[in-house]
Amino acid sequence: MKTQVEERFSEFYEKWTYQLEEHVQQLVMVPKAKPSEPEDSELQALVSRVTSHYKEYYTVKWAGAREDVLAFFCPVWLSPLENSYLWVTGWKPSMAFQVIDTLKKTVVPCASMVDMSETEAKKIEELRLKIRLEEEKVEREMERLQVAMADRKMVELARLASRVENGDVVGQVDGLVEVALKGLLGGLEKVMKAADCVRLKTLKGVLEVLRPLQCVDFLAAICMLQIRRRQWGKIRDSQKENTSAEIL
Q1: Cα(178)–Cα(174) distance, rounded to whole angstroms?
Q2: Cα–Cα distances in Å, from 61 out to 10, 58, 66, 169, 206?
Q3: CA 193 to chain centre
Q4: pTM score > 0.90 for this model?
Q5: Taking the CB of residue 212, how many other CB atoms lie within 10 A of it?
Q6: What are the residue ranges of helices labelled H in 164-211?
Q7: What are the angstrom distances between the C-alpha of 124 and each of 43, 127, 232?
Q8: Is 87 helix (H, G, I), strand (E, B) or coil?
Q9: Who's near 242: CB < 8 A, 6+ residues apart?
């Protein structure tokens, strides 16, 4: 059974993904525009709409996490396939640079990344290294929280909870456990937001380096990966359900 946060965010995410698909349709049509290419201002406006859409996602996510942060570490609105690619509740920032590398190697017409200048490439590489350091910082904090589950206080509480029988004492122990878990959950919320900030910083940094048309190609690729992974996950889940039904 879903919690209230899971119910609300599942509904929001379905609508948000549908709107993302609409944005992708606009992004992929840009390089094909004829007879004249769109002005930079038009491209920048399109890029701004997509980035605003992502900012809305994180605003709603953070509001939900204040009520139930664990919902975002085990998201029921995602398929197992999507969940398997999560890095601290979302996409790994380094993936953005892999997308750029792939786009630079493509020979598809209008793939603007092929024409990336040396200056742009150098700035992207500097950003890649900076983001990797920030990823490592988040990972160290996540590891610290995981290890904290086995610190002296938690171990003693676990042992005490398994021994007490008196009702009053049980209530006291439960209260201590609640306080301890509250601290751990607060840490998870903090590390989740830190990871999200690295994701947003990655998008902002990349888009500041790239030219408008390159930004469009980059966002189109990033968004399409997210959408296709969701579609593939749903197809796989449906196939598993059909197989189970046949066995029964």
Answers
A1: 6
A2: 11, 5, 9, 38, 23
A3: 11
A4: no
A5: 19
A6: 167-209
A7: 20, 5, 30
A8: strand
A9: none
So what's the pLDDT on residue 109? Answer: 44
pLDDT in tens, 170-207: 556 666 667 777 888 999 999 999 999 999 999 999 99
Q: How far apart are CA 148 and CA 138, in angstroms?
A: 15
Q: Which residues pair with 87 in a beta bridge?
A: 90
Query: Under DSSP, is residue 77 helix (H, G, I), strand (E, B) or coil?
Result: coil
What is the identity of the amino acid at 132? R
Rounded to 10 deg, the angle between the 4-29 and 212-247 helix axes is: 130
Token duo for residue 221: 């690729």
| 5 contacts 64 by C-beta, under 8 angstroms | yes
Is the confidence at residue 57, as pLDDT, over 70?
yes
Q: Where are the alpha helices (DSSP H) in 106-166?
A: 118-148, 152-163
pLDDT digits (tens, 9 = 90+) for 5-30: 999 999 999 999 999 999 999 998 88
